[in-house]
Amino acid sequence: MIEWYVPLSIAAAVIIFNLNHVAEHSTPGDYFLSRQELGLKRGTVLLWMSFFGGFSLVAPVFVIYYFGWPAGVGYGLFLLLFLYILLSWLFRQVGNDPFQSAGLLGHYQARLTKKGYAFLLPLVILANMEGLLLQLGLAQKVFTLWFPDLSKGAFLAILLGFCFVIAGLGGMLAIFRAGYSLLLVCGLSFLFIPLYSYLGDGIQAVFHSYQFFLKMREAQPVEMVFLLIVVPFALMGILMTHLFQWQVIQSIKPQYRSQVRKLSVACFSSIPISIGIYAIYMLSKHPAFTFIEFVQHIVEVPGPLIAMLIVVCWLASVVHSVFISIFSMAVLFMKSIPGQRSPRNRIRSLYLRSGILLCLVFCFHVWFMQNVQFLFMAYVLLYLIVSTPLVFIAKSRGRVSGWTTGSLLLFWMLGQILYGVTSQPYWPMALCALISFLTGGSVYLKNKKKSEYFAKRG
Known about the structure:
Elements: H1 5-17, H2 28-32, H3 40-51, H4 54-67, H5 69-96, H6 103-109, H7 114-128, H8 130-146, H9 152-168, H10 171-201, H11 203-216, H12 221-239, H13 243-251, H14 257-285, H15 291-300, H16 304-336, H17 343-368, H18 372-394, H19 402-422, H20 426-457
């Protein structure tokens, strides 16, 4: 049994640590931090933070369970390399983009027609609300395993209240300070948990028991194919839609961009490695024949100390996701607040809108949110369908029409309807992947023709 006041005490300490940065912004630039202002430390922490969410905790466990440790480690290294390559491309794209001062939304506005941007905007907004919708929805389901004496409404109110104080009222600097503190706590936990487990039982004994488990279980080719195909494209979709990551990349000083890119991926790699090592230990001690059973073992079996550290790390991942969503919504709100208002009034309006949004999110989760599985599938389809087209739109020399982004919005909705009717994830994913490839290919070919035309004229 984990006492809920332990993470609550950590949250109170983080708030006290950030009090001097809460609601102290006189201009929007103070809230968002001025462009080209992030150094090596801030840039690395904020970019590392953006990767540390619920997915980064679950994916290593999923990989180890279905692939085994040799193939799992190989696939994990491939994903880290793929993430580094994507970041390298994105850093170059942001550095060479003449519209980078306008942010991610300005980047797409410059490359899409008015209708094209109008069709893409709902997808971008939904992608940036993942922390407030999907991550909180999953947290609402999971927390009852650890905090059975705490009501659902109380849990969400405490979590949203904490995130509003830090991200909604504190801005980028408070997010950095809070995220840095939580990453230090999680880093020590990820180091301590595997060491304590393996030193207690012995490395040879653990791997001997794990090999016995591998001989007993059957391969799951469908799940393997699902993971191999979906995850890389989901990473592409996330990087091309998330306002927070784009803002961080734009705000890093040019001389530090190369080091930040390398350090953030290197620091982040410690998380899946530690979780994968601990997953091997749990499978050796408590074999499971379904993935759900395996996750239950991780949650329920450890002793009080290990369980408390797991809870803190899980809550930190949820908090990071909510931080990022709140900040992304603040970017969108600031775009809609009239520029003729005084800077202080714009900041106050930003605080008010953020508070109202979190109240609406609270009501949504308490009274209306029922099917988290459907919401999870909606986000998988969203990231899958926008991945390839947005990469080629980012490289487009001309304006892309509304037919392109309109088809993405339409077929994303059709994919959800197909999933609701069939309850099978593979056909909707196949549909969205096909539309993504076709749309991306169409944008690429049109861009190539335009490049050839300009080359002939030049």
